[in-house]
């Protein structure tokens, strides 16, 4: 029988494809969804989505993984097996589990399609295996639900969430961002979210409030303003805690037209009711409708809502909030109308934050005037607002060389309150280009804050970015820079190994001591050499003695002589009496005749020589 090569080739190709798919599927089941393969999970930062089912982790790209637009991302993980166990414990059907997973898939798919600054940015789309689902987004701080103290599905609670309280200014700014996103959804994307709640609003690492949780979203008919596939939710008449598999939005935030059966007038206004409930919860620090998904409790709470319920709400928000919470959907304001409320409009501090939101779009003259005003507002901003609302746009603006002298002091001031990990993640990347290009007054400012930078930067960043900047300061001709960098040398030396210290730093300190014509620079250089003695070996210390000898040969001024005595004492304490008697006393003794020493200074010199001589004799 003749062999058909074409048929054989096709058979081989088909078999190869089957094998490749089988291997790929097997590998995926072992290693997990694609985001878990491409990113290394670090700490869990929070939870979110319906029932807070998603666990959200900080993650960084693995070696060889596709490049990401952020140095770190958030990887969202949903454990299907844990979900199945929770479903079984709750006595729910497998169909309910499948329906919930379909909601999660719909949410993830919608997030990928929606492109807006107020919608969570997906870095890597949803992928799933039999055991888990995962996707990667821009870095997230937490869900608003987490920020309000609900920490369900969070294993080890991050210290940032423990006892966290948001001030009114931060809440205002966040609500304004959500309102603008809702305006986009309603008027551009023609969508009704239908599930606005603390579980579906997220705070990013840069402090922005963004929407997620689009699993219940439906299109809005542009002609009628109603939902194209309107459907009501069906809640129970008794208390139900269905957080294991929430197949409907939380009743505490759901508009009445989505609850009442037979209500045909359902449109994007349902989101404004939910948004009103969210705003109330954030400002009053308690939910308006705490009804445990019991529709009777919900209707009673709405029916008997009194003005007393708004006693904790700022007076300039009450009327707008009451309109948003109206049972009549037509009476509710649009999202854009809500942004015009005096609650937002009359707040000067909020206007400042809004200007910062769009700082990159302003010209330098506008920025200069604003930053002058901002410097007077610092006392009015709490630490969270400074860190999450003010710092990110200022860091982004550091690329503007013209504005650097105004912005850099503010960035460095805010950075003082950051811990090391936060500084390295959010502030250092913006400072690195400044380290490289800084000169003149900008370099002087950075050197003055070098202690802050040295203490908060990891050694790898210290060596690759901070040390080269300080070396430029050593080599600069400006005496102010030379003095400042000498004052910061000792903290720097504690972070460097002796080889690098002797190679990059010590020769420059010697050079400043010997070559400068400015007395203050020489004094600081000699002090610095004395402070470096404990970090050096015998060879390094002998080098210091040689430099001191050369300095005192040409400069007998009292400050130089007293700094020399300080170096001598440091060497004696470090190396002992034998070393001091052999190498230090021969240097000090001739200086006793210097007429620049006053009586007290001469006495200190004599005391040092006598002490060494006495101790040397005792040792013999």
- The order of strands across the largest sheet is 1-2-3-5-4
What's the shape?
A: elongated
Rg over CA atoms: 34 Å
Major beta sheet summary: 5 strands, antiparallel
Uncertain regions spanning at least 5 consecutive residues: 22-30
Oligomer category? single chain
Give the number of helices. 27
N- to C-terminal distance: 109 Å
Helix- and strand-based class?
alpha+beta
Describe this structure in words.
The structure is a single chain. The chain has 620 residues and is of the alpha+beta class. The protein has helices spanning 5-31, 34-38, 80-89, 94-113, 144-147, 168-187, 269-284, 295-303, 315-324, 335-339, 342-345, 348-357, 364-374, 383-397, 404-415, 420-437, 440-448, 450-456, 459-475, 479-487, 489-493, 498-515, 519-532, 538-554, 558-575, 577-588, 599-619, and strands at 39-48, 54-61, 73-79, 122-128, 132-137, 140-143, 191-192, 201-204, 209-211, 218-219. It has a 5-stranded antiparallel sheet. The chain has a 3-stranded antiparallel sheet with strand order 6-8-9. This is Protein kinase domain-containing protein. Residues 39-344 form the Protein kinase domain. InterPro entries: ARM-like, ARM-type_fold, CIK-Related_Protein, Kinase-like_dom_sf, Prot_kinase_dom.
Could you provide a short overview of the structure?
Helix content is 55%, strand content 9%. The protein is α+β, with helices and mostly antiparallel strands and 620 residues long.
